[in-house]
Amino acid sequence: MRKIINYINGEWCEPSTSKFVPVTNPANGEVLSEVAQSSKEDVDHAVRAAKAAQRLWRLVPAPERANYLYKVAFLLKDRKEQLSQTLTREMGKVIEEARGEVQEAIDMAYYMAGEGRRLFGDTVPSELQNKFAMSVRVPVGVAGLITPWNFPIAIASWKSLPALVSGNAVVWKPATETPMVAEEFVRIYEEAGLPKGLINLVNGSGSEVGNAMVEHPGIDLISFTGSNEVGKAINGRAGELLKRTSLEMGGKNAITVLEDADLDLAIEGILWGAFGTSGQRCTATSRVLVHESVKAEIEKKLLARIGELKMGDGLDEKVKVGPVINRSSLERIDEYVKIGQQEGAKLLAGGKIADEEGLDKGNFYLPTIFTDVTKDMRIAQEEIFGPVVSIIPVKSLEEAIEVNNSVEFGLSSSIYTANINRAFQAMRDLDTGIVYVNAGTTGAEIHLPFGGTKGTGNGHRDSGVAALDVYTEWKSIYVDYSGKLQRAQIDNN
């Protein structure tokens, strides 16, 4: 049995606990490997290595740091198919989505390598003669990364690459469900020649390893993607310790379909957004706010198309809907479907665990559509994280915007319309960090900020130049070459 162990200070090492748990394929229950369950002693070992390495790494010129990232990009590109196959086997998403996710990591490596020759600060005119003023970015120190199972390499790339190019060292806890692709990613860093101690992999549970990272005084920031419940707990404790946090949490994303929309295009966006990755994306489409005049037609088109979505093992190129990650997620989704029925929503399609031959050994839930949902129902307010979408009728764009904004999350939103005035009104008024026009709620690109408002996060962003703000501090520098004491505002009035 393959064992996934830790990588600390440039060495592969077993956990101090000698404990391992199985990693299973959610499509068929096959045990793929065993992953280490580490302790706070392992975290401490990793942090000490990271701190020592970072003291030297911060002195390496940023363009030279970037050269390692270019090597990572080349290796990721070379091993794209291998990584994609591993990702599908342990996470379950269909192979074309897995390839897209690995491509996202490739893109991020190239992009952040480019930032090694930028990392721009500012030069500004001083208000006094013979004085120079500027600001520069400096690394924060040791970054603690806690990443989820649904995008195990893409999100890891969003966090580790900007951290490293900015001059930080990394301690990374991947999700217990997806450690194999994490191991392969770290082996790529190793093969790229990244100096030892800069990337440290510590496998284990959130309660043990994650908490130890938050509590450790040697970790200067925590970058977390996951549930609101855990994110809030991290933020509360890290705040007491005056530790920086970057949180990317839940979503309850809606597509608005107005009466002048291209309905066939909207159907494509709804199906992809709701049932791609089996709804296990923070940007998944879980609500459709449809103008009442086209509601019946949208429902008819959706019902005609949903039956075409083949379910099964994501390694089959024809499969469009894979399994959900584990049995507890399957049961949670089913419980929400029961809640929706109890609340009075009308079930149009799906609504049960798939138990037919070929699917019964995996964690499959039928693509599910509710209609006649009201905005205050739990299925319209709470994140389900599964292949469940709710149709909510609206009478106007203004009502759609109000319903869109009525949830505690603010990650992604979408509007389908042929009216440019309505599109710009929606772009202004939809309270989400990402807005799509005539496209679904998924498909973010790595060179723009990724994140949201309200309960989705705490104001920081992954991806784009904005990611550098997470992993750098601003330092303001003044050079006075006047040869005399100048007292700023005192002498300049």
Task: Give the SSE layout.
Blueprint: E1 3-4, E2 6-8, E3 11-13, E4 20-24, E5 31-36, H1 40-57, H2 62-78, H3 80-91, H4 95-115, E6 122-125, E7 131-139, E8 142-146, H5 154-165, E9 169-173, H6 179-191, E10 199-201, H7 206-215, E11 221-225, H8 228-240, E12 244-248, E13 253-257, H9 263-275, E14 285-291, H10 295-306, H11 327-343, E15 346-349, E16 368-371, H12 378-381, E17 388-394, H13 397-404, E18 409-410, E19 412-416, H14 420-429, E20 434-437, E21 453-454, H15 468-471, E22 472-480
Parallel strand pairs: 1-5, 8-9, 8-11, 9-10, 11-12, 13-14, 13-19, 14-17, 16-17, 19-20
Antiparallel strand pairs: 2-3, 4-5, 6-7, 7-22, 15-16, 18-21
Helix pairs in contact: 1-7, 2-4, 2-6, 3-4, 3-6, 4-5, 9-10
Main β sheet profile: 7 strands, mixed
Gyration radius, in Å: 24 Å
Question: What count of structural domains?
Answer: 2
**Order of the strands making up the biggest sheet:** 15-16-17-14-13-19-20
The level of helicity is: 25-40%
Q: Give the integer mean of the pLDDT values.
A: 97
Which spans have pLDDT < 50 for at least 5 consecutive residues? none
Going by CATH, the architecture of the largest domain would be 3-Layer(aba) Sandwich
Global outline: globular
Percent of residues in beta strands?
A: 15-25%
| Cα end-to-end separation | 75 Å
